[in-house]
Amino acid sequence: MKMLPTVIANLFAKPATRNYPFFVRENFEHARGELINDIDRCIFCGTCARKCPSQCLAVTKDKAGDKTEGSWTLEFFACVGCGVCVDVCPVNCLSQKTSHRPVATQRAVITLRGTLPERPSKKEMPVE
Questions:
Q1: Do the Cβ atoms of 92 and 83 come closer than 8 Å?
Q2: Reading across the β-sheet that carries 67-75, which strands appear in turn?
Q3: How buried is 115 (Cβ within 10 angstroms: 0-12 exposed, 13-18 middle, 19+ buried)?
Q4: Which candidate, 69, 84, 2, places its Cα nearest to that of 35?
Q5: Which stretches within the chain are classed as H helix?
Q6: Whole-structure pTM over 0.90, yes or no?
Q7: How far is CA 63 from CA 47, 49, 57, 70, 114, in A?
Q8: Domains of the chain by range and CATH?
Q9: Cα Rg for the chain, rounded, in angstroms?
Q10: For 53-101, what is each residue's pLDDT tens digit?
């Protein structure tokens, strides 16, 4: 009998949740969402892969002829969105959007390939 007023109040109150696919809430200002890599700036050092707590990143570097190429692989289902990789990237090529990836029914793996930017020679570097 003590629960009857609560049951009646909840029966006529509006729902506490949203009908998600039809009513989507805006993301917070500093929300951590989808991981983005600017592959043209990446130096394939592997720091992000070593520091990632969920081990969702893999970075490989291989020499192909006179250029050094690399690949950067992200497994989205394993990524927890913590942002550690973004914080430790020495060239700031990693960033996070405030929105999350759309819902997926299959395993998603992204592999980006690029070439290592050329280092300036010691002769070209200014002396301070």
A1: no
A2: 57-64, 67-75, 109-115
A3: middle
A4: 84
A5: 4-12, 47-51, 84-88
A6: no
A7: 19, 20, 20, 8, 12
A8: 27-115 (3.30.70.3270)
A9: 23
A10: 999 999 998 876 677 889 999 998 899 999 999 999 999 999 999 888 8
